[in-house]
Each structure stands twice: as C-alpha cells, then as structure tokens.
Amino acid sequence: MNTATILNIKTSKSLKEEAKNIASELGLPLSTVINAFLRQFVRERSVTFDARLTPTPYLERVMEEARREYKAGESKNAKDFVAHLKSLA
Predict the structure, then answer these.
(1) Of 10, 56, 60, 61, which one is least surrounded by beta carbons within 10 A?
(2) Residues 66-89: what's their mean pLDDT?
(3) Which family does the similarity line name (predicted)?
C-alpha cells in the first residue's frame, strides 16, 4: 500500500517561488519534481548536482572575441600558448 505523506522542509521563499515557476514552465507541479529527486536519491544512494551555469557578461565578451579571432585566423595554436605560459614563469 502506497500512502502519501507530507514532507516539510525549510527553504527561502524566493527559492521556492523560482522552483515552482520553473516546474510550472515545464508543466509539472513542484511536488512531482521533488518526488523525482527523492526517488533518484534513494535509487542511486548519491546526490548529483547539475549546475548549468550562465556565463557572465565579461565571459560572453571574451568568448565572442575568441570566436572572432578564430574566424579571422588570428588564434594561436596550443604550442604557441604553452610557450607563452612558460614565458610568464
């Protein structure tokens, strides 16, 4: 017999609202998402965090500059890069 129970946890109001909104965007109630995490935790007996990070504006600029340099043929090869690092030591 599978009886539902209530699980109370403490979390910030903003985290709860953000999680609820994301779950809603995916068409899921937050309780379904939490139950899926709990089932995975029990099944695998481990905790896995997948943090998909959003690049900062600075990193976006650096990556765009690297793309432009690569397309223009201005990028250096690995050998040049290693030589540069050695010159800094």
Answers:
(1) 10
(2) 85
(3) Belongs to the RelB/DinJ antitoxin family.
